[in-house]
Amino acid sequence: MNPVEGKVTVITGASGGLGRSVTEAFLAGGARVVGVSRSIKQADFAHPQFVAMPLELESGEAASGLAADVAERFGRIDALVHVMGGFAGGQSVAETDDTTLEQMLDINFRAAFYIIRAVLPAMRRAGNGRILAVASRQAVDPGAMVAAYSASKAALVALVRSVALENRDRGITANTVLPGTMDTPANRAGDPKADRSRWVQPAHVAELLVFLASEAGASINGAAIPVYGPHG
After folding, report:
1. Which domains can be identified in the chain, with CATH numbers?
2. How many Å separate Cα 58 from the centre of its chain?
3. What is the DSSP string of the chain?
4. Would you say 34 and 55 are in contact if contact means Cβ atoms under 8 Å apart?
5. CB-side exposure of 54: number of CA atoms within 13 Å?
6. Model confidence over 31-53: pLDDT tens digits?
7. pLDDT of 77-96, one tens digit each?
8. Measured in Å, how far apart are the chain's first and last C-alpha atoms?
9. CA 145, 204, 226, 131 torsion-angle sign
10. What is the pTM of this model?
11. What are phi and psi for residue 12, nearest 5 degrees?
């Protein structure tokens, strides 16, 4: 039996480097996937259980509208898989400008806050739900010259942990995964000489997210799970 058969799953950042692998894994697992990103198209995934919803999660209003549309169309929201995120760095804290800080908080924290807040009422009414977010190893193991990125991902981990504590009375679990550097087209282009044997494969992160969304993952709640690769 497919592990997430029939589960209505919202995936943000669904067409990105990791998002594509995650979307394909959930579709293969039997989920009904609502794929969300700014420029996503229905033709991006040739699967009858896929629905594209182009949207930028730039406000609470946008997220609330999306959650209402999904609930109206499918009657429920079983899982949220928040893959959306971004990176900017290379400067010390003393050199980091306000624009970079706000960019990291917007894309890595605020968007997650908006969409998690938006889907929770439907999940609480149903007495069931899975909230999953992709953070980063940098959230718990920060390095130099990436403070804004690391802090925004750490805020995401804290947010999801709070959600887990606040909603365990309603059968809702909330977890983050913390990948190391992933083998995506963007990372290959950004560091073409890197030893990619040490990088995390997106398919492995996707498989973990499917497991966490399934009934087999029901006992895992409030976790921040490291996925650092074979040499991590």
Report:
1. 8-227 (3.40.50.720)
2. 16
3. --TTTT-EEEEETTTSHHHHHHHHHHHHTT-EEEEEETT--GGGS--TTEEEEE----SHHHHHHHHHHHHHHHS---EEEE--------S-GGG--HHHHHHHHIIIIIHHHHHHHHHHHHHHHHT-EEEEEE--GGGTS--TT-HHHHHHHHHHHHHHHHHHHHHGGGTEEEEEEEE-SB--HHHHHH-TTS-GGGSBPHHHHHHHHHHHHSGGGTT--S-EEEE--TT-
4. no
5. 7
6. 999 999 999 999 999 999 999 99
7. 999 999 999 999 899 999 99
8. 33
9. positive
10. 0.95
11. -90, 150
Task: For the sheet with 32-37, list strands across it.
Answer: 50-54, 32-37, 8-12, 79-82, 129-134, 172-179, 224-227
Q: What amino acid is encoded at 57 in this protein? A: L
Q: One-letter amino acid identity for 62?
A: A
Tokens encoding 97: 């400008």
CA atoms of 141 and 133, how far apart (whole Å): 17
Q: Which residues pair with 177 in a beta bridge?
A: 134, 225
